What does this fold into?
Amino acid sequence: MNAEIRKLLAELEEQGRAHDAGETDRSRKFLNLESETARIVSMLARGFRATRALEIGTSNGYSTIWLAASVAPAGGRVITIDRSAEKQKMARENLAKTGLLESIELRCGDATEIIAALPGPFDFVFFDADRISAPKQLALLLPKLSPQAFLLADNALSHPAEIADYLAAIQNVNGVQHALIPVGKGLSVALTDAG
Ligand SMILES: C[S@@+](CC[C@H](N)C(=O)[O-])C[C@H]1O[C@@H](n2cnc3c(N)ncnc32)[C@H](O)[C@@H]1O
It folds into this structure.
């Protein structure tokens, strides 16, 4: 990741904190990943040499930049989904500053509906939208995964009741290896076909 992108990410971290502290409407908050969590997501994507990444929950593009910067050097691409057109516009503007836009497809709408129509395959999926829809989205995605795929989900510790069904579902996937990393808000990490 080049110095300009690192600088932009640091600026977005500051902006995100200030924005969310002053915004009372939760749906308008950016709710960006903690930077420590973003680093782990990035290292897994880069180390795995993921090429077909899917992000559910774009917000203003903070985590999308981490993901795209991690997969683009290996020729990878990211599809990222958010239902907020306003946030997607901000994400596009932020992503345009990185030179990574051509590796990213921004999709606007309900994630479950969009996922149902996506062909896949995906080798890296990051769930960071509403936890309630995640089990349905997981079920739709399972047949669209590459033989080995990482499935990550944030908020595994911060929203235990909301994410419980997803955690139960992911741990039930055949051949999956799962761990809950106590970083940031809690990161669920699963590798399918772990052998
Ligand atoms: C926690 S924020 C994502 C933060 C982002 N990953 C980051 O770290 O910068 C969750 C986002 O998911 C979006 N979202 C929530 N439920 C959704 C759904 N069912 N379909 C599409 N987008 C959804 C919200 O609009 C919000 O922008």
